[in-house]
Design brief:
This is Protein kinase domain containing protein. One of its GO terms (molecular function) is ATP binding. Keywords: ATP-binding, Kinase, Nucleotide-binding, Phosphoprotein, Serine/threonine-protein kinase, Transferase. InterPro entries: AGC-kinase_C, Kinase-like_dom_sf, Pkinase_C, Prot_kinase_dom, Protein_kinase_ATP_BS. It comes from Stylonychia lemnae. The chain has 351 residues and is α+β, with helices and mostly antiparallel strands. It folds into 3 domains: 40 residues, no CATH class; 163 residues, Phosphorylase Kinase, domain 1, CATH 3.30.200; 126 residues, Transferase(Phosphotransferase), domain 1. It contains 11 helices and 8 strands. The strands form 2 sheets. The protein has a 6-stranded antiparallel sheet. A two-stranded antiparallel sheet has the order 6-7. It is globular. The relative contact order is 0.17.
């Protein structure tokens, strides 16, 4: 996604006096037109600013579209959630947390939020359009861009404000994909950031072997195995891989690799990652080992045809809520425009 230049502040556009004289009439007219344009640009962004191109995904609460910003033809992914369904499943707080997390996190390997806005019935997240395809694992939440770089998406179940050294800040919610759940989530004893390092271990195990460490179709038994069963280290795992997995898949969260004060630094220093220069990786100075076959930023060949064949239309939400109930369903502080959103002069306040 490219950057665009922001307009100059209004004060910068006012002609200066010439030798103490007032601006000429032509300059005043120009100044007035520019002022009116800037004032008109304070309009709130909405779905009308985007052209829907194709459906690229579908979830429980709505669809994901490939869209173009009409102002400059920039391509984005627009996730649309139905407010009534979010509310009916008590996910209002989690959805707002996802919105806030996406605004705060700026990382080259995490999807960027460019805009967020709402209507009476729906919520809209406008993010990077990534067309390299998803990994062939659970990571439909890990997507490749056109150059082969990974981007993490979907923070709908994320928590904020957890202090890894403070038991009082643990959370007790039971959520997530079963194959990747840490034991302490399953037992309900409370969990913090250390549970994420277990999930990372389960993901790496799957990438090395083809499936998560305790995977089986019987989910109840699978979760019992996660809590009780010894993890099998495959004979073809390297010594470094076995050491890393043993550290990440440690059942005691207080002893788990990455659970201490050093957090991720402890994992980065592990011999398994010895050949990786993490600063160069962050700066995207390391060429990805795989580059997806795409012709350009609008190529959708790596997106499932079951979505692409759907009618590309944001249909009106069918709601049984009363007008008063809809007003209560309003999300405060939801509207957002990123610094590099791409619309010159399009400005609005959080609402």
């Amino acid at each position: 996604m490219g950057n665009t230049c922001a307009r100059k502040p209004l004060t910068d556009s006012i002609p200066q006096k010439r030798n103490g004289s007032q601006p000429e009439n032509s300059e005043l007219r120009s100044m007035t037109v520019e002022s009116e344009n800037l004032l008109n640009s304070n309009a709130k962004i909405s779905k009308d600013d985007f052209k829907i191109i194709k459906v690229i995904g579908r979830g429980t609460f709505g669809k994901v579209f490939m869209v173009k910003l009409k102002e400059n033809n920039m391509v984005y992914a627009m996730k649309v959630l139905k407010k009534e369904q979010v509310a009916s499943r008590n996910l209002r707080v989690k959805t707002k947390a996802e919105r806030d997390i996406l605004e705060k996190i700026k990382n080259p390997y995490i999807v960027d939020l460019h805009y967020a806005f709402q209507t009476e019935d729906k919520l809209y997240f406008v993010m990077d359009f990534l067309n390299g395809g998803e990994l062939d694992l659970k990571p439909e939440n890990i997507i490749l861009d056109s150059d082969g770089n990974l981007k993490i998406t979907d923070f709908g179940l994320s928590k904020q404000g957890l202090d890894k050294q403070n038991d009082k800040s643990k959370t007790y919610s039971f959520c997530g994909t079963p194959e990747y759940l840490a034991p302490e989530i399953i037992t309900g004893e409370g969990h913090d950031k250390a549970s994420d390092w277990w999930s990372l271990g389960a993901l790496i195990y799957e990438m090395l072997s083809g499936r998560p460490p305790h995977y089986q179709k019987n989910r109840k038994q699978m979760m019992a195995d996660i809590v009780e069963k010894r993890i099998e280290m495959k004979p073809y795992f390297s010594v470094e891989a076995k050491s890393l997995l043993s550290g990440l898949l440690e059942r005691d969260p207080s002893k788990r690799l990455g659970s201490g004060e050093e957090d991720a630094l402890q994992i980065k220093r592990h011999p398994f990652f010895a050949k990786i220069d993490f600063q160069k990786l962050y700066d995207k100075q390391i060429a990805p080992p795989f580059k997806p076959t795409v012709s350009g930023p609008e190529d959708t060949r790596n997106i499932d045809k079951m979505f692409l064949d759907e009618t590309a239309k944001d249909t009106p939400a069918v709601s049984n809520l009363s007008p008063d109930a809809k007003k209560k369903n309003h999300f405060d502080e939801f509207t957002y425009q990123g610094n590099n959103g791409g619309v010159e002069g399009l400005k609005f306040k959080k609402k």
